[in-house]
Amino acid sequence: MFVGHEKTVSYVKFIDSTTLVSSSTDNTLKLWDLSECSSHVVDCPVQSFTGHTNVKNFVGLSVSDGYIATGSETNEVFVYHKAFPMPALSYKFNSTDPLSGDEVDDAEQFVSSVCWRNQSSTLVAANSMGDIKLLEMV
Question: Where are the WD repeats (predicted)?
Fold first, then answer.
């Protein structure tokens, strides 16, 4: 059992064979090192990631080559590297107005899904308006 989040855990993903990351509605991602488990209860994550907002919605979680992507209730995508607690980058996910085609900032929208392309720096992200974007991490 892993103890460390204060609210609902919505996602858990393996980064490699001994490391996993968890996402919670307590506004954090936590990194856990399974090789340091000496008992059935692990109560100290090796890293906590903050910067994104997640208090009620499932915002997605994806991992690739030490990078961790998550959505945010601020309609942004955040990318962390497992070695650093702060975001490596973020991208404001503006929505497209269906009538004008212009990009607009809608504070009520959130990024709901993220997925890395295998062995690539390309990330696909979707939000609560149904918009899907391909993003390239450079």
Answer: 2-35
Domains and their CATH numbers in the chain: 9-136 (2.130.10.10)
> Is this prediction's pTM over 0.85?
yes
pLDDT tens-digit readout, 108-126: 899 999 999 988 899 999 9
Interior/surface letters 86-102, b for 16+ CB within 10 angstroms, e for the rest: ebeeebebbbeeeeeee
Please give the Cα distance from 98 to 80 (Å, whole number).
32
pLDDT in tens, 2-15: 777 778 889 999 99
CB atoms within 10 A of CB 55: 12
* Pairwise CA distance, residues 3 & 100, whole Å: 48
Question: What's the one-letter identity of residue 112?
Answer: S
Two tokens, residue 76: 């942004």
